[in-house]
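Quick illustration, no need to memorize.
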Amino acid sequence: MGEVIGLIVAFLGGAILTYFFGFARQQQADHSVVSDQSDNTVMAPVEGTIIPLTSVHDEVFASEAMGKGLAIVPNKGTVTAPVDGTITAVYPTGHAIGITANSGAEILIHIGINTVQLNGQYFETMVKQNQVVKRGDLLTKFDVDKIKTAGYDTTVMVIITNTADYQMVKPTDATEASDNWILELQPKEIMEGAPANV
């Protein structure tokens, strides 16, 4: 649990990024939520079986303290960019990546539970902080079978860490993740600008 809490702070705070990652977050372009963005969907970053975030075996994720999202039990060890955007955090052990979408969504992809304890074993990160990526670009490779054999849960959590910026974060009704959207985001601006009493 401490690892998860540390990651939350590291992902959101520049000073803590320096402590955990060894570098400070550089100034990024303004990533405020774009209400007129036509594409506010998050695609599946991994293939596998979709499960509710509330059912994962980690209290912090399951409580949605980090934000709303969902989880995927992977059947393949590749993680691809779920949106067009910029890599804003890369954990040294390779088990987590933060990406800010061009639309403003801040997404955390966390591979496995307590997998930080593997110290990078069975993970290979393919991107760097501040790298611009397109949806579908390869971000990380990991060995599902070896991680399981080592005794770790390989469930991948996909979290919208700036959930408060959205009126709605809607998970898909699909049960399998492949080349499909898994989260639909509705920025607050859309609701606030809508006519009243319609």
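The first strand starts at residue 41 and ends at 43.
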